[in-house]
Design goal:
Blueprint: H1 2-16, E1 26-32, E2 36-37, E3 41-47, E4 52-56, E5 67-68, E6 71-75, E7 78-82, E8 85-86, E9 93-99, H2 103-112, E10 133-138, E11 144-156, E12 162-173
Antiparallel strand pairs: 1-12, 2-3, 3-4, 5-8, 6-7, 9-10, 10-11, 11-12
Length: about 180
């Protein structure tokens, strides 16, 4: 009988996954400004606390912590879209803490950046972001995230729609501390 309870508990824990134990504190995700149409246009943003993508704006989904709203610019005779971040909660935001000429230098800085320093100026929306930058985000919940921009791309969809993508590595501090976990 005891064996059945242990087996049942093991099945529950494995089927529930690691989300039972809190959010992912590190990871990577690709953030796109591509818009989709249902009843109205929306895009996908990322929630650090839930480690999930959510539609924004979309009544039935929670508000994500970060979206790539994209910035349209004229490059020669062509219009392209560059990645730019925004916080749907319209609070706190982003601070650029480093720009580098190589991904290796940016990664070294990112790995060594262990504490959010005092005096950072956070903005709700960023200017276009570039590869090899390191940003700090303060979420609407007051938690900190450090972001390494590994790649950015200006793309065009099948219907000719312009959008951008950014590949981000992140470290999330879910308890409001300025210190990042190892």
């Amino acid at each position: 009988m005891r064996y059945r309870y242990v087996l049942l508990l093991a099945l529950i824990l494995t089927s529930a996954g690691c989300k039972m134990f809190g959010p992912d504190k590190t990871g990577e995700f690709r953030l796109s400004s591509e818009k989709f149409l249902a009843d109205s246009y929306y895009l996908f943003g990322y929630s650090y606390e839930d480690s999930e993508f959510y539609r924004f704006p979309f009544e039935k989904d929670p508000s994500p912590d970060i979206i790539n709203e994209g910035t349209r610019v004229l490059q020669g005779d062509e219009t392209i879209e560059l990645s730019s971040f925004n916080t749907p909660g319209q609070t706190n935001g982003f601070a650029l803490v480093g720009e580098f000429s190589s991904l290796e230098d940016a990664r070294d800085f990112y790995n060594d950046y262990n504490r959010v320093e005092d005096g950072l100026q956070f903005v709700v929306g960023t200017s276009p972001v570039e590869a090899n930058q390191v940003w700090v985000q303060q979420t609407s919940a007051g938690n900190y995230v450090k972001l390494l921009v590994k790649e950015v791309a200006s793309l065009e969809g099948e219907a000719g729609n312009k959008y951008s993508e950014a590949l981000l590595k992140y470290t999330y501090q879910p308890n409001g501390s300025r210190d990042f976990p190892d």
